[in-house]
Amino acid sequence: MENKSHSRNSNIELLKIIAMFLICVSHVYNASGFSNVLSTNLGDVFTVMLKNGGWIGDVIFITCSVYFLYGKEKTLNLRKIFIYYISSALIFFVYLGIFCLIGIEVPRDIMINTFDTLIVTDYWFIFQYIIYLALFPLLAFITDKINQKVHFVFVIAALAFAITNLVLRQLGLYEFGLTITFYTIFIIVTYGKKYGHYLFLKDGKENLKKNSIILCILLGLWFLTTILCSLIYPLIGLGKVEMTDINYIHSPIMYLIGIDLFLIFKNIDIETSKTINYISSLSLIFYIMHHNKYTQLVIDPNIHNFIMNDREAFRPLIILGSGTIIFVVAILVSIIYKETIHRLVVMIGKYIPNISLEKKNKIQKE
């Protein structure tokens, strides 16, 4: 998550902040206890879209990471892997210390997982991102060796695999889960960086207007597919499918919205802002800080009671409002952590050598 932009402007950094907000609101939805039962009620549909917006945030982060890492010197970044894992683990020790000081009881399993640091593996994005960083040099090496035709076949296969995974999830059959997400997006984004085409999305400032129109169409498809599937599924024996699974992260609509947003922000000029860049740099810390097994003990029951207490018509607005409050507070707490404990971890991490595997010329198509 915590990738520095290679641009002098803050366009991509602003997009990352938007992604942070989408993920935060999605987690508020999780805490609300809102029903995922299929429904054509517009309020329910918009509420579920707030949940699925978190998947778009994840796609944005993966897209940014792939785009800015691919084409650089091939390096096994042990330093970054160390910083990500240790700093994430220490966040839970901080929460444990605070809870003990103020007398909040911590369940035994959470306490044990905090001390053995396996608690980090419970957070799919962080754990999968660490694995992805370890595998990145190999993935980049393979991608460099294949030609455009073979790479395009891989893109089609990756998209087909994602769709198949989505269908299997809705049928209640075996699925590969979230693990495969990094690699399907990797294949699509590296093709786009090399050849300028992300599926049917074209890169370049001259395509900014087209990409904006496509974004509106995709948002409409997101809404319509949620409505139509909620209407049709009960008629064909799929009434037990959860509404949040209609446009799960494996959905091509989620992929395309995330990548299209990346292309739009990449190709617009936003004046450099140190504030935007700094807030964006908090993404890793923020991801775990704002919603974890400790905050769930205190915050989630209150969110659930407030949102679900006879306020059905206003639930989307309440989730957005609650998400905004938590977003601001989590940013402030993340700043404190970044300037104290995280800074110390980074200092220690400087003594861990990276392993340079191969030097290469950067891809020119930026």
Features:
single chain, 366 residues, mainly alpha, two-stranded antiparallel sheet, 13 helices, 4 strands, 67% helix, globular, disordered C terminus
Overall description:
There is one protein chain. Helix content is 67%, strand content 3%. It contains 13 helices and four strands. The longest helix is centred in the last third of the chain and has 35 residues, at 315-349.
The N- to C-terminal Cα distance equals 20 Å
Overall mean confidence score, pLDDT: 90
Order of helices and strands: HHEHHHHHEEHHHHHHE
Beta-strand portion reads under 5%
Query: How much is the radius of gyration in Å?
Result: 21 Å
Global morphology: globular
Strand arrangement within the widest β-sheet reads 1-4
Residues in helices, as a percent range: 55-70%
Secondary structure blueprint with pairings:
Elements (H helix, E strand, L loop, with lengths): L10 H22 L9 H28 L4 E3 L1 H25 L5 H8 L8 H22 L2 H23 L10 H15 L1 E2 L2 E2 L5 H25 L19 H15 L7 H7 L2 H7 L5 H13 L7 H35 L5 E4 L8
Helix pairs in contact: 1-2, 1-9, 1-10, 1-13, 2-7, 2-8, 2-9, 2-13, 3-5, 3-11, 3-13, 5-7, 6-7, 8-9
Summarize the structure.
The chain has 13 helices and 4 strands. The chain has 366 residues and is mostly helical. α3 runs antiparallel to α5 and α3 packs across α13 (315-349).
